Amino acid sequence: MHNASQAFDANLDGLDWAEWLTRISGLIGQAGFLEHLGEDHAAAFRSKGATLLVTFENHTLIEEQSQRAHPMGWQLVEALGWSHLNLLCKDDTWFRAPRVYGFFDRMIDDGFFEEFDQVVFYGAGACGYAAAAFSVAAPGARVLAIQPQATLDPRIAEWDDRFLAQRRTAFDDRYGFAPDMLDAAEQAVVLYDPEIELDAMHAALFTRANVTKFRMRHMGPRLEEGLERMQILLRILAQLSAGKLDRLALAKLFRVRHTNGAYQFNLLKKVTREERHLLTIQLARKVLEQRDATPFRKALARSELILARQGDVEQRADG
Q: Looking at the domain covering 4-259, what would its CATH class be?
């Protein structure tokens, strides 16, 4: 039997899907279980605290984003002291599989979610869709979904051409339309960048009385990574669990973006692309007060030169 801390020390990088699941099962030991849900899905549970975090994660993305190929949920529950149910997929599947539906059906029948004081569902992108869709299994749960799709059913979301290969996947059967599945949630929070038009269109479909939609402008397509880098994802989940995550709380947490390199660079690309030279100068000077950054120095010099030339032309015209 392995103790809990060993799971967070093990290096799982470079393992294929089957080997990776085998290692996770061994690390969990008697503290929980790992169950295979067909070839492409699995569920891993580790018992710890009275709050349960249910995360949905993609093995391919875990390999890309974690040096030791650890599910993000491990980091979150280690810091928060919560129990953890981790739904895993081999690659993006939106968890549309009868074996996954059957697993949640069984958890409902067994009263699994009722054993916890509180249940929090979490996911991003395709996994954000799943977090919202399957939260119906635990009425009263709280949900955090980052850039979620509402559905890929072409009858509803034909405008989303990013996932054409998934259009044959059934989104009109059980646990299907994610916004409807949130009706039983205590609170749901949807985070998205409105500059990504298709994400904003999906977010609009989540308009519900119990859903807080919060725009995180200029964060780009990898919002989850950005929140991790800014070290506020954990705080967002903790405040959600405590019932304190409203729009004001999110706005306060999001202020840290002003010193975040990725956010600043995304904003620089936007203002330079739009040839907004005064804003470029203001942004570049502010960033250069914080640190030396070559792209901002170059952008500052370019915009100052352009404005100087424009001023010279205007003076000649007046003369």
A: alpha beta
